[in-house]
Amino acid sequence: MKGKELRRSLAVLPIGTVMKLTSLTARQIRYYEAQGLVLPQRNDGNRRMYSLNDIDRLLEIKDYLDDGVNVAGIKAIYEQREQAEAARKRATQRPLTDADVRQILQDEFIRQGGLGHTQDGMEQHRPL
């Protein structure tokens, strides 16, 4: 996680500050928490503490509600986003196939041993 994102995810804001920043009531914020739309952290005294990312989420929820989307619709939107993000992560973290490993090994042998160089200095790839 990058430094900026790490700072945005630090839960340091109490609910009173969140209420001022979002123009939401404590009851609304707690309701969105009960619905699983926002998940604040708790401090040692069991007080809710919010991050800047939580503030962004609450403002986004408020915008959706202003646009006429109900809470169930907002949940569906966030579930779709999470599924898409999970699918994207799976796609970028696919395991190496045997062919991938062979190609990496072949390229490394060629690079280390100079096996692929011709007299004119151009690389020539030969299957192992």
UniProtKB/TrEMBL annotation:
SMART domains: HTH_MERR. The keyword Repressor applies. Residues 12-80 form the HTH merR-type domain. Pfam families: MerR_1. InterPro entries: DNA-bd_dom_put_sf, MerR-type_HTH_dom, MerR_fam. It comes from the Bacteria. One of its GO terms (molecular function) is DNA binding. Keywords: DNA-binding, Repressor, Transcription, Transcription regulation. PANTHER family: HTH-TYPE TRANSCRIPTIONAL REGULATOR TNRA (PTHR30204:SF65), REDOX-CYCLING DRUG-SENSING TRANSCRIPTIONAL ACTIVATOR SOXR (PTHR30204). This is MerR family transcriptional regulator. It comes from Candidatus Levilactobacillus faecigallinarum.
